[in-house]
Amino acid sequence: MKKLILFVLICSAQNIFSQKIFPAKETHEALTIDTSQASTSEENTIYNTAGLDEKPEFPGGVQEFNKFIEKNFKIPKDGLKGKIYTTFIIEKDGSLSGIKILRDIGYETGSEAIRVLQLSPKWKPGKQNNKLVRVLYSAPLYINIPSN
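RE: above sequence
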């Protein structure tokens, strides 16, 4: 009996949450595409670093990025150790936008990481099909402050 009730619940849930396909309208208007909106959305597309022809890069590479972070990051508390996980968008001009902290180690390290990333010089932007594109970039910031 329990199996039957469970089976009925699963079937009804599948029916309720399944996608419904509606037939397209037979008019010509339904098939036209507004190209001005399509080109604007293509210009604002945010790419992942995995499929790019040229990946974005900090001026001087990853080692220089780490030096920049180390130089500008103000230590909120002695004895901190850990990673701050960040994501941000590298715009077509190389500036950073949409800076988000996915995980920090507390003691206002997330807001300090945002402050430092906003100070960042312009990056070399990513390219796809020889066009500059916006790229979502993830970077862990390593914090290892010894206790005094």
